[in-house]
Structure formats: C-alpha cells, structure tokens
Design goal:
The structure is a single chain. With 366 residues, the protein is an alpha/beta fold. Helix content is 41%, strand content 21%. The protein is built from 13 helices and 14 strands. The strands form three sheets. A ten-stranded mixed sheet has the order 2-1-3-12-11-4-5-10-8-9, with helices on both faces. It has a two-stranded antiparallel ribbon with strand order 6-7. A two-stranded parallel sheet has the order 13-14. A hairpin with a 5-residue loop joins strand 11 and strand 12. The longest helix is centred in the N-terminal third of the chain and has 19 residues. The structure holds nicotinamide-adenine-dinucleotide (NAD). Nicotinamide-adenine-dinucleotide binds next to helix 4.
Length: 366
C-alpha cells in the first residue's frame, strides 16, 4: 500500500520527535511491504520565520493532498519568543486553528493508557493503578460552547456575560458514528457523557446517540453524567473504553484522563474529519525548554503514527506492531528522562536513553 503522509515537524522538540516517528514508520513499511511518501511543510514559528505567517495556503494544499498529516508540535516560549510579540492571529497557534478548520477536523481522539511499566507514575490509589486502564476520549471539536454566540453587556450598571451552547443533530450524529466505529476497533463499549438532567443540548445529544447506537448492535452503549464521569475517571478508570462527549466536557475530561496516566511524553492524539483523513500529533506541546538536547520522549508521536495507521489506513496489524514495540522497550527498562521513576532505587535499574536512541530501539523491535 502507498501511504502519502504530510509531516509538520513544527517548533521546539517537534523536528526531533517527528524524525523518530518517521524512523519507526519506515521500519513498519519495510516489514509489511508498504511505501511511505512523506513531504514536510512548515507551520507555527518555523513558518513565521520563513513566510511571516504561521501557515501558508500552499502548506494547507499539501496537507489536503495527503492521506494523513503527522505533526510534532508548534509554538515557542510564550514569554521570551519574538513570535508572541505578534498580534494573536499571526502567532504560531493560529496555524493550528487554521489547519483544523481547513481540514474540517471535528473529532478529537485522545487515548489514555496506563502501561504496567509506568504504573508508578499514576497518581491514583495503588489498587486502581494496578488494575490498569486503556480508554479513548472522543471529543467533539467544532461545536458547542466554544463556538456559540457570546456577548458581554452592561445591564443596570452591572456587567453580564453570555455564552451559548448549540448543537445540531447532524453535528452530534457524525461524531457519534465516529465514536461507535472506533469502539468497534477496540473493546466495543461507548460511554456517552452529557448533562442530560439539566441541558437541552445534552438531551438532544443523548437522543441522537441512542439513534446511532441502533446501527451498532455489537457495541454496548451507556450514558453517564459528566460530573459522575469526572469522579469515575479517578475512582475506576478501567471501566471505560470509548468516552464520547461534546466539546467542553471533552476538553476537561481528556486533560483529567491524561493526568491520571502521569506521563505527558506518552500521550498520542488524533483529529479526524468525516473521511478517513486525520491529523495525528502528541498531546504535549513543543517543550522549548528541552529542544535540541536529544532528551525529548518521542513515544507520544510514535504512538500518534500508530493511530494514523489504524484510523486513516486501516492497518491494524501494523499499528499493533508499533504499540507492541513501545511496550517491549519499556519492559526492557529503557526510559527517557521524563518517564524515569522518581524513586532512586528503581531509577538505578533503568537504562536512560535520549530521543534518537528511543526511536531507534522502537524501530528495531518492529
Ligand atoms: P509542553 O507540553 O510543551 O511542556 C510542558 C512540560 O512537559 C515541559 O517541562 C516539557 O519539557 C515537558 N515535555 C513536554 N513534552 C515532552 C516530551 N515529549 N518529552 C519530555 N518532556 C516533555 O507545554 P508548554 O510548556 O505549556 O508549552 C510549550 C509550547 O507548546 C507553547 O508555545 C504552547 O503554545 C505549545 N503547545 C503546542 C501544542 C500543539 O502544537 N498542539 C499543544 C500544547 C502546547
């Protein structure tokens, strides 16, 4: 199979971690007989330095021409970098908003997985972390409170602010379909999270999700109120497979879920549109504080590449191979500095490696 991938190395540690993900992809391609065609484009600060803007129309066209986009991260030190002296629409992050809009990316996927070998980093009770968890938070990305009408007015001498939360049934249906499709590739369970005891938008959400569920009799659906879900994520995260939710609830719950894994350098993410196309990137930022030192953890980006194979190319076996290789290097006690155990006795049993070596170790184990 020919895989056309546009890469956005971006800023900070972005180029380092994308290089390692490409190394692993090439290893997968060699083993399974695929051809990988990559093209790099500039975005964020790297594009500002060359073109004066964070994303050009040519770069968008290159992204659209590919089957999927693999991104490192964009942005610099927000207090010292000259990029942040520019007006907001010219700063690095506006490139990200622009590409999400141009590619119509409405579904955000963030897996939160606790690896046995990193269970010590989990801030939850020992019996909870020992049970482990592997969930996928699926967040609607282009509707709801963040995109509704807003205003601040003065009434009777007092300021009054209003935000509106609107969802149409089509917006709910398309993300629900994605959620159920993804559950079919996992453990066949969807937990739809809403606040249907209070909000009309949530009642519509629940109704439409129920309608979509009729086409997926092999997937179990449950509903959960968002406040309960926030509690369950710390009490019993192992119960979740796919959590399907709207924009703001998903924003908050996905950060909560990633914190309970305890390891920011391990967390992948994807943003999808209504075709197989997706943009895949680590959940973390560009870490300008460690850029260029060969100490960044490339695993989140490598696992994002695995998601790309699974969701944009339906190459499940190849994605499994990457995930297994990541587990294997952890089992062999290789660690980048961010995932070293805090305990010095345990740390002394680990083999500390840099970004490049971690990428090579994973590529070799494919
Ligand atoms: P960050 O995630 O870049 O860094 C937070 C901390 O985690 C830092 O100490 C960093 O060294 C560490 N860290 C992050 N990724 C790591 C990795 N792979 N390996 C080892 N350590 C890692 O968050 P921040 O410092 O708040 O933001 C830095 C820049 O990244 C900002 O310009 C921000 O706007 C940008 N950002 C971009 C994206 C994106 O491109 N999608 C997302 C978040 C932040």
């Amino acid at each position: 199979m020919e895989l056309k991938i546009t890469c956005i190395p971006g800023d900070g540690i972005g180029p380092e971690i994308v290089t390692e993900a490409k190394k692993v992809l090439n290893s997968v391609a060699a083993k399974y007989g695929h051809t990988i065609l990559t093209k790099d484009i500039l975005m964020g600060g790297a594009s500002i330095d060359v073109h004066g803007i964070p994303l050009t129309d040519e770069a968008i066209a290159d992204a659209k021409a590919a089957d999927a986009v693999l991104m490192g991260s964009i942005g610099g030190n927000t207090t010292t970098s000259p990029w942040y002296k520019l007006s907001p629409e010219k700063r690095p992050e506006s490139g990200l908003l622009k590409i999400r809009k141009a590619l119509n990316l409405f579904a955000n996927l963030r897996p939160a997985v606790l690896y046995d070998e990193l269970a010590d980093a989990c801030p939850l009770k020992k019996e909870t972390s020992e049970a482990g968890f592997d969930m996928m938070i699926m967040r609607e990305l282009t509707g709801g409170l963040y995109f509704g009408e807003r205003k601040t007015v003065t009434e009777n001498g007092k300021r009054v602010a209003t935000d509106t939360l609107t969802y149409s049934e089509d917006e709910i249906r398309r993300i629900a379909v994605k959620g159920f499709d993804i559950a079919r590739k996992r453990r066949h369970k969807v937990t739809s999270v809403d606040k249907a005891n209070v909000l009309d938008s949530s009642r519509l959400w629940r109704n439409v999700v129920e309608e979509v569920a009729k086409d997926y009799s092999d997937v179990t659906l449950e509903h959960m109120l968002v406040d309960n879900c926030a509690m369950q994520l710390v009490k019993d995260p192992g119960q979740f497979d796919v959590i399907l939710t709207e924009n703001m609830f998903g924003d908050i719950l996905s950060d909560e879920a990633s914190m309970v894994t305890g390891s920011i350098g391990m967390l992948a993410s994807a943003s999808l549109n209504d075709t197989k196309f997706g943009l895949y990137e680590p959940s973390h930022g560009s870490a300008p504080d460690i850029a260029g030192q060969d100490i960044a953890n490339p695993i989140a980006t490598i696992l994002s590449a695995a998601m790309m194979l699974r969701y944009s190319f339906d190459l499940d076996k190849e994605a499994d191979a990457i995930e297994a290789a990541v587990k294997q290097v952890l089992k062999e006690n290789y660690r980048t500095v961010d995932i070293m155990p805090q305990d010095s006795a345990k740390a002394s049993q680990m083999k500390k490696v840099g970004c490049r070596e971690m990428g090579s170790l994973i590529a070799e184990r494919i």
